[in-house]
Design brief:
Helix content: 10-25%
Strand content: 25-35%
Shape: globular
Strand order of the largest sheet: 4-5-8-9-10-11-12-13
Distance between the termini: 56 Å
Structural class: alpha+beta
Radius of gyration: 26 Å
Bound molecules: 2-acetamido-2-deoxy-beta-D-glucopyranose
């Protein structure tokens, strides 16, 4: 209701010019943009539709409009839309066209960062993992197979965007080509030229195509291309004059543009939560605006890496589920002090829109919910892997078994007795392997620290390694990030052979409901990767429920959680800094109990009697990290010694 009212206010009396009058371009003589023939500069903010439930798109966009923004900027993650070659999804939370139209309804222009590569702390920087089906592919270069895949993808994406370009009556004023290409080793101008031609072919000659690079001459060297307008990105505290002089090196005339002015910063598991003060943001933003420059704030709202969508940096450091970013709107869309500080600065340079700012959505503490253990991954193997294992002498990667996300079970038999603690090793666990022998957990191997482990078991016993893909590298030359066991596994001196590799479709099995296997009597009493389920009902008699909430995992270690089949993401309170997970209200129902499924890999608090999770009304994503990830080895071993 409020939203509707606001829309009417915003649009009241504004004659929208007909398509033929609409134009957007660069005015090189006056160093600005030209919109409908008038000098123009934009103040924009980043929002990734892939990180905000569709249900909340309008709320977030309205808050951005009311902060005084002219435009929003979004990335298009290719892998979010093309899950298998030629299999596209543009519906529901992936309905990009509706998102763009909604931005326009709210009165915002849109800057489209169409990729194909986006970085964005998103799995593989948005590139689909199936590109790695060609093992030697050189991503972000003129590798023929890479170009062919882009050609097909852009042939789907860009025609959908064309009617939404500003000059065609839509909100899209500019389209970014590639992303910070100058930071990549390949420096392949043929690739950039191919993209330029492809974009022009699909979008026409009128639209402003641009590139973005770090504000240094060396980065612009490989990132800029004649015919694509060069912009720069830099954060608070930088010398604004000097940063824009770098842009001038590439673009002697035309508007000054900072395409990513950082309002906060990203997080990694095992590192302190990033915080950037409002005062320094306000100060630098004001300087940028005083230069007459256009600016996009990255992020204006970060949102959430639901499911398996987070990326990672090298040396391997995955990003957590929350992408709060310390942005002016919190992960849950809450108005923060930073929001008002930014709004005040914007108000010094332009007239702010009148009308109410949509309020912060209320959060509700539904309280504790008891969970029960329903069985291990092994117990559910038939449900999780209905087509059974792929057999191979040596281990295969995720891509080789055509599974791109989540978890794969690698199984073989011990070739000999390992009663005197035999060393199991692999240099290629991507990214974390939960090891057990005949149902007895042995410990965890990982990519960055723990590459060997002593195991015990008799000849012929099943050695199970459940391997987790923790998110593909999204930045730099390590983009070709193969998952699973990417090298051989040795036992003492011997290479282990004859693997059964089970692709696991856990999301589908969870969606169908996991029936309790505990009565089958074949359950080990040890803690292997195990499923727990429970449910809770929305209390009646309280108005406006269901509301957003956060799950807290006290006493749990590391795992993945679903509510009503929606994959909320990974939790890892034993490492931090993120302790609670955001639960948007739109996945909850009032009409029946809400089903929770937790897959815990290491240690649940259930053996000590408190088999609970708790729904709380405030987030905690900034816990003190006791041990930075370099000493995580200690931490992991502690957990295991504790329960073996
Ligand atoms: C497409 O994506 C939406 C949103 O994530 C999802 O609900 C839907 O099931 C997907 N469709 C297919 C066919 O996978
Ligand atoms: C900022 O950079 C400009 C241009 O390089 C320079 O003239 C100025 O002194 C710098 N300001 C500060 C505070 O360093
Ligand atoms: C392996 O251990 C089992 C059980 O302890 C024993 O019966 C068997 O003889 C051992 N095999 C070898 C080859 O040592
Ligand atoms: C394995 O056991 C041996 C002998 O007890 C010990 O020296 C070694 O440190 C252990 N290795 C690991 C990785 O725990
Ligand atoms: C595993 O070892 C075999 C035999 O030495 C070798 O042919 C194969 O390439 C190795 N696989 C990997 C992934 O290293
Ligand atoms: C909900 O949980 C209760 C135990 O708290 C259980 O008896 C009931 O079967 C569960 N309902 C569903 C639909 O899973
Ligand atoms: C919860 O699970 C039960 C039993 O599988 C199912 O009947 C019900 O539809 C589920 N509820 C929701 C909201 O998905
Ligand atoms: C985390 O953030 C909250 C809310 O801003 C603050 O009260 C708390 O002191 C912070 N904790 C840490 C450990 O930084």
């Amino acid at each position: 209701m409020l939203a509707l009212l606001l829309l009417q206010l915003l649009h009241g009396g504004l004659g929208i010019p007909s398509a033929s009058q609409r134009s957007f371009g660069v005015d090189y003589a006056r160093n600005c943009f030209l919109k409908d023939g008038e000098p123009f500069r934009y103040i924009s903010g980043s929002i990734h539709y892939s990180r905000v439930p569709r249900y909340y798109w309008k709320d977030r966009l309205l808050k951005m409009k009311m902060a005084g923004l002219d435009a929003v900027q979004t990335y298009v993650p290719w892998n979010f839309h093309e899950s298998e070659p030629g299999v596209y999804n543009f519906t529901g939370d992936r309905d990009l066209v509706s998102f763009v139209q909604l931005a326009q309804e709210v009165g915002l222009l849109l800057i489209l960062r169409a990729g194909p590569y986006i970085c964005a702390e998103w799995d593989m920087g948005g590139l689909p993992a199936w590109l790695l089906n060609k093992e030697t592919i050189v991503l972000r270069s003129s590798d023929a197979d890479y170009l062919a895949a882009i050609g097909r993808w852009m042939g789907i994406l860009l025609p959908k965007m064309k009617p939404l370009l500003y000059q065609n009556g839509g909100p899209i004023i500019m389209v970014q080509v590639e992303n910070e290409y100058g930071s990549y080793f390949a420096c392949d101008f043929d690739y950039l030229r191919y993209l330029q031609k492809l974009f022009r072919q699909h979008l026409g000659n009128e639209v402003v195509l641009f590139t973005t690079d770090g504000a240094s001459k060396s980065l612009l060297r490989c990132g800029a291309l004649q015919g694509l307008y060069s912009t720069v990105d830099f954060g608070p505290g930088n010398n604004v004059t000097a940063a824009f002089l770098v842009q001038r090196h590439s673009e002697p005339k035309g508007p000054l543009v900072n395409s990513e002015f950082y309002t906060g910063w990203l997080d990694h598991w095992g590192h302190r939560h990033s915080v950037v003060s409002s005062s320094i943001i306000a100060k630098t933003l004001s300087e940028i605006l005083a230069h007459g420059a256009s600016v996009n704030m990255y992020m204006f709202i970060g949102g959430t890496n639901f499911g398996y969508w987070n990326g990672a940096n090298m040396p391997y450091l995955p990003q957590p589920t929350s992408y709060d970013y310390d942005a002016p709107l919190s992960e849950a869309g809450d108005l923060t002090e930073k929001y008002f500080a930014i709004r005040e600065v914007i108000g010094m340079y332009k007239k702010l829109p009148v009308g109410p700012i949509p309020p912060t959505t209320p959060k509700f503490a539904y309280g504790e919910v008891a969970l029960e253990k329903v069985g291990t991954v092994k117990d559910f193997l038939d449900d999780l892997s209905p087509s059974g294992p792929v057999k191979s002498t040596y281990p295969l990667t995720f891509v080789q078994v055509k599974q791109y996300f989540g978890y794969v079970l690698y199984r073989t038999k011990l070739p000999r007795n390992c009663s005197e603690k035999t060393l199991l090793s692999s240099h290629g666990i991507h990214d974390r392997g939960y090891v057990s022998v005949d149902g007895i957990p042995q410990g965890v191997l990982d990519r960055w620290n723990i590459i060997s482990l002593n195991i015990t078991g008799n000849a012929g016993a099943y050695l199970d390694m459940l391997v987790e893909n923790m998110g593909r590298v999204n930045y730099g030359r390590y983009n070709n990030d193969f998952k699973g066991l990417v090298s051989n596994v040795t036992l003492g001196e011997d290479i282990l052979t004859d693997w059964e590799i089970y692709p696991l479709d856990i999301d589908r099995a969870v969606d169908q409901g996991l029936s309790n296997k505990m009565s089958d009597g074949n359950i080990s009493s040890y803690e292997e990767p195990t499923f727990y389920t429970g449910n809770f009902s929305i209390p009646s008699g309280i108005p406006d429920l269901p509301q957003d909430t956060y799950i807290e995992f006290s006493g749990w270690t590391k795992g993945q959680v679903w509510i009503n089949g929606f994959n909320l993401g990974r939790y890892w309170p034993a490492l931090g800094p993120q302790i609670t997970l955001f639960v948007p209200s739109n996945i909850l129902v009032s009409s029946s109990p809400n089903n929770i499924t937790v897959l815990e890999f290491e240690k649940a608090p259930c053996s000590s009697g408190k088999c609970l999770i708790e729904f709380v009304d405030r987030p905690n994503i900034n816990a003190t990290v006791h041990r930075e990830s370099t000493s995580e080895k200690l931490f992991t071993r502690d957990v295991f010694l504790d329960h073996i």
